[in-house]
Structure formats: structure tokens, C-alpha cells
Amino acid sequence: MTAPITDRPLMKAGRKPSNPPADAAERVREYAADGWSVIGIASRLGVDPKTFGQWLERDPLLKDAIDLGREEQHHVLYNIAYREAVEKRNLTAVMFLLNSRFGYRNDQSEQGNRVNVTIALPGAMTLQQFNAIGKDQTNVQ
Fold first, then answer.
1. Which of 13, 23, 84, 99 is the most exposed place for a label (fewest CB within 10 A)?
2. Can you tell me the distance from the alpha carbon of 81 to that of 137, in angstroms, rounded to the nearest whole number?
3. What is d(CA 7, CA 141) in angstroms, rounded to the nearest whole number?
4. How large is the average pLDDT for residues 60-89?
5. Predicted confidence (pLDDT) per residue in 85-96, tens digit
6. Which of the pair, 17 or 59, is modelled with greater confidence?
């Protein structure tokens, strides 16, 4: 019988979980406002996305920073579309804002582009009815 190995630890040695830098919340907000994804933000901070995910779970301020940055980005983009619609009277921008902000939809165009297929299936048959159909088809040939 072989003796158990006792000279090595059961767990692999590794680094302790790192902590976010002191200015992480501000940097995360800025990156999110610039349109970076979570993976991109992790890369900009120089950490693995899994590590950044752990930071987000541990620190609600970082999650709030992402939300605030995305809201800033949304405001900037919406404002561009709004100015295009109002100042330049761009009808496409007007329709986009009405659709996205107020739920306006052109039902006629949506209905015209749809295909409607109806398939009518016969009702259920008993085993005897099914066998009778099979016998009738073999007699035809």
C-alpha cells in the first residue's frame, strides 16, 4: 500500500484577492460614460474580468458608478438625438425619439411585413381508424 502524500498543501498557493484602487469608483464611472463594457472597464483597470466582477459584488459603490456612467452616456446620446430633432427638424430623429421615449409605433407597417400561416390539423384518431386508413392506401396501389 502506498503512503499518503503529506508534504504538500491541499490547496494551491495563490494571491489573496486584490482590492480596487482608491479612485476606482470615479474611474469606473468615467469608463462607463465613455461606453466601455464591464470587460473593457476591467481591462482599463488592469485586472481580470473575474476579479472586477468580485469587486462589483463586494462594493456596491462600484456597481452604482457603472450605473451612473451609463446614465451619463444615455443622456449625452439622447441629447444629441433631441437636438437633431428639434434644432434641425430631422424627421427621422423625431420619429426615433417618439418611438423610443413614448412608445409610438406604426402598426400598419408592422402588420404589412408579417406573414401569417395557419395550419389546420385533423383531430385525433383511434387506432382502428388509423389502421383502416392504412389498409385503404395499400389497396389503392
1. 13
2. 67
3. 82
4. 95
5. 999 999 999 988
6. 59
Does 14 have pLDDT greater than 60? no
Report helix, strand and coil shares of the chain as percent, to nearest 5: 60, 0, 40
Which residue is listed with cell 491541499?
10
Query: E strands along the chain, which residues?
Result: none
Number of other residues whose CB lies within 10 A of the CB of residue 20: 20
Q: Is 60 exposed, middle or buried (0-12, 13-18, 19+ CB in 10 A)?
A: exposed
pLDDT at 103: 83
Whole-angstrom distance, CA of residue 46 vs CA of residue 18? 12
- Report the pLDDT value the prediction gives residue 105, as an integer from 0 to 100: 74
Instruction: Look at phi and psi of residue 16 and say left if phi exceeds 0, alpha if psi is from -120 to 50, else beta.
Output: beta
Report the C-alpha gap between 127 and 133 in whole angstroms. 10
Average pLDDT (113-134) is 81
Residues 6+ apart with CB under 8 A from 139: none
- Nearest-CA neighbor of 28 among 75, 72, 62? 62
